[in-house]
Amino acid sequence: MQLEAGASPFRRLPETGFADFSGRMSLKSMTGYGRAGFSLGNVEFTLEASAVNRRGLEVFVSGPPEWTGLERLVTGWVREQVARGKVSLIFQTKAAGEANALAWDADAVGESLRKLEQQAVLAGVSFAPDAGLLLRLAELHRTRREGLPSLEAEETQAVLAGAVRGALGQLVAMREAEGKFLETDLVRRVDGLVTLLGQIREHSQG
């Protein structure tokens, strides 16, 4: 597991040469996860934040295509809480009360089918649309999410900032908890080595 150590140097124990970790160690796991749910207008959002190891900070954001400036905003909020790692934030949307069905423009899909049929007739080939073609056309003609607020609105940015910071807070807490566990294990192992070294010295002197 990749770790991020604190900047404080470790004091060496003169009698052993081992580092004294007491009060000096600050480890963080480089992996973590956080989640937040929120609503804007009649649109429900789920935000998932995850992090893996990177030498520097790399931010990836996926959200509604209408929000073209989302990554720039979110990256600024991420930098407030995270210094290293590849951090991914995925925004998923669903209109309030909406099932997880594909939202499409039925008129546009129908028009595309009509034009394709005309081209097939002109080319002298058969035209038998199947479910795969319908799905591709549906993806092509996704409707704009009704009720999706403007990203430029102050209220929208305030809600988004709270959700991002909340999800990142969970992510950072997970990294710190895993780091604390590893710190405890490392100190235990070093203490065992120090004890063993002392026993070896006693036997060698005897």
Description:
This protein has 206 residues and is α+β, with helices and mostly antiparallel strands. The protein is 45% helix and 22% strand. The protein has helices spanning 70-81, 106-123, 131-140, 154-205; strands at 3-5, 11-12, 19-20, 27-29, 32-40, 43-52, 57-62, 85-95. The strands form three sheets. It has a four-stranded mixed beta sheet. Strands 1-4 form a two-stranded antiparallel ribbon. Helix 1 packs parallel to helix 4 (154-205). The chain starts with a strand and ends with a helix. Residues 5-14 have low confidence and may be disordered.
Tags for this model:
206 residues, alpha+beta, two-stranded antiparallel sheet, elongated
Radius of gyration over C-alpha positions, nearest whole angstrom: 28 Å
Number of helices: 4
Structural class: alpha+beta
Strand arrangement, major sheet = 5-6-8-7
The residue-averaged pLDDT reads: 79
Distance between the termini: 42 Å
Beta-strand residue percentage = 15-25%
Count of DSSP strands: 8
Subunit organisation of the chains: single chain
| Biggest sheet overview | 4 strands, mixed
Q: What general outline do the C-alpha atoms trace?
A: elongated
Element pattern in H and E: EEEEEEEHEHHH
In terms of topology, how is this protein built?
Elements: E1 3-5, E2 11-12, E3 19-20, E4 27-29, E5 32-40, E6 43-52, E7 57-62, H1 70-81, E8 85-95, H2 106-123, H3 131-140, H4 154-205
Parallel strand pairs: 7-8
Antiparallel strand pairs: 1-4, 2-3, 5-6, 6-8
Task: Offer a concise description of the structure.
The protein has 206 residues and is an alpha+beta fold. Helix content is 45%, strand content 22%.
